[in-house]
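Below is one such record:
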Amino acid sequence: MGERADTKEQCVIDATGKVIATAPWGRIAYVSVDDRILTLKEGNKYGYATFDGRTISDAVWTEAMNFVDGYAAVKSDKWGIIDATGAVVVQPRFDALTLPVYGCAIATLKKDKEVYTNVIDMHGNVVNPYPWKNTDPRFVDGVAVVQGADKKAYLINYRGDVLTDPGWSSISLSYHGAAVIKGRADFRDAYGLMSSSGQVILPPTYDKLGDIIEGIAVFRKEFNYGYIDCHGNVISPAQWDYADEFKGGYAVVQQNQKKGAIDARGNVVLQPAYDEVTY
């Protein structure tokens, strides 16, 4: 985004520097390039306009999400959904909604002390009725994490189909086609990997397993740290006293109170000989 020097209007520019959209009013909060719609904020309210400056929804919403696949979640007192013409297609009646994707959204209703979550379509109809609790309000690679009545975490697809049985103590999604799962092994908490289709890649094995960053996760086995990729392959064995997450293809490691660095193949590119390593 940028700002015109002559009019001070906010605008959207492409990779060549060409202005492709200008805010007809308010300030730009989000930009949907695929739908060619701007989410605009005026005062404390949100509305929408097209890239060519046509208002499709005035600033009447207290909260608003970006457009995806022709739909956006909006909130007045409750959450609902509008389409690309600005028409309300799901009346605001939910306590929480995820970003509408794949023609579905995860909707949450609170009744007294209970919280219920179901997958709805773009008309507000329940696609697959389950008494889920929404533990991770997003779809990643077409799946989402919900909590069942047994307090276990389950993976569902955008139709609401259950992909995991039994459930896990926790599931942490990533954008690499895999998720970190927490279960039990040898009477203790342990962590492993599961694919986004619900197949176990690596049974709960490690004492700790961090988030998958750049396709690689840090694990702890007993008192040492190592790395595995999103397929469960060991990139670097448990030989480090400390191991940081990958960033830009490299990770800082520590051995005998000295720090160094490894690359994404597990090769030591900087011997652990330094008090501090930053990049």
User: Anything to note?
Assistant: The radius of gyration is 23 Å. The mean pLDDT is 90. The chain has no helices and 29 strands. The first strand starts at residue 2 and ends at 3.
